[in-house]
Amino acid sequence: MKTYDWIVVGGGITGAALAYELVKTGFAVLLLEQYETPQNATRYSYGGLAYWSGTTPLTRQLCQEAMSTTGYAYALYHILSQELDADIQFRELDLLLTIAADSDPEATAASYAHFAIPPRLLSKQEACELEPLLNREAISGALTVKHGHIHPEKIAQAYIQAFLRAGGEMQITQVLQIVQHGVKTTTTTYHSANVVICAGGLSRQLLQSAGIPIKLYFTHAEIIETPPVDLRLRTLVMPAKVQRFQLEAESTQVDELWNQPGNEPVPPILDAGAIQFQDGSLRLGQISRVLTDSHAKVNSEASEKWLRKSITQVLPALGNLPGTWHHCLVAFSSDKLPLIGAVPGFDGIHIFSGFSNPLVIVPPLARRFADFAIGKQDEIIAQLSPHR
């Protein structure tokens, strides 16, 4: 019977990055992913790298670790592309944060003053010059800042391939239960000194089924994905007043609501935005719903109609493009920070999840976790502990 040092549950970008960093450190690692073609948050992510968005000493330091000292290029991502020997489609582009027509541009800009790199305020005319597909009548202005971008699926696959080349093992199988020193799957039981849960929106359910309470939550996120189109979106468009973070905060006020399926602690929100990938395809989104059942059914027809109407108001040329509605779970915590480290009171059980924002901090934290796993002290990992 083979026993591993670490079992990593979840093959999205968090699990893939962590598995790679652990095996690179010298551990025997098994990566478990439920689907041959993942349907997780990584698959439907915008892929934005908000290195500019740190608002506290902790988040500013993590964002800084993903960029060079010049503040222009993202050193870690340049290095990663070479290290993983893969094209992760890393680039820098303009992020355009639209300000609604009935909102005060100056007041909106002021709300970003505490960010590491505050976005620059644009007039309506300047915003439409930067992004010609914008509906001038829908905005009172916009904010802009340089923003990193990767193809999220490609970087996750790049991590997995590098992990396998480094001697890691991977199995496509569903984890049914966390057991003492291992996990039980649909095919067998795997044994390991340590198990780390990186299963995104399914992490809470998996841990709770083993009697492990955790303050980790999830939204049902919905987007429309288009095939490659001839239209060219020059920027990554998002609203300046993102409702998702308020929704996450409000939905965690009563933790008991999450212990029963069928609850909807707060109403759904829609943050109208869009990103175009290098192959010409677009992701248009996103709706966020707080439904405490991870398997809850969503009315895809009504959702798609709502999405298309909202996108059309901001970017008229995109709203009626042919495309397919998709849905995934996005994990988050009650304080905007991921949960990382050992689960108190449960020997050998760890978590590396809750990265609803920003994606940019996943690689540096995976490296820090791997160093922590070999005994190095890390103040940042301690600050992100699930018992904080």
TrEMBL record:
Keywords: Oxidoreductase. The keyword Transferase does not apply. It comes from the Bacteria. InterPro entries: FAD-dep_OxRdtase, FAD/NAD-bd_sf. One of its GO terms (molecular function) is oxidoreductase activity. Residues 5-371 form the FAD dependent oxidoreductase domain. GO terms for cellular component: cytoplasm. SUPFAM superfamilies: FAD/NAD(P)-binding domain. Gene3D superfamilies: D-Amino Acid Oxidase, subunit A, domain 2, FAD/NAD(P)-binding domain. This is FAD-binding oxidoreductase. It comes from Komarekiella delphini-convector SJRDD-AB1.
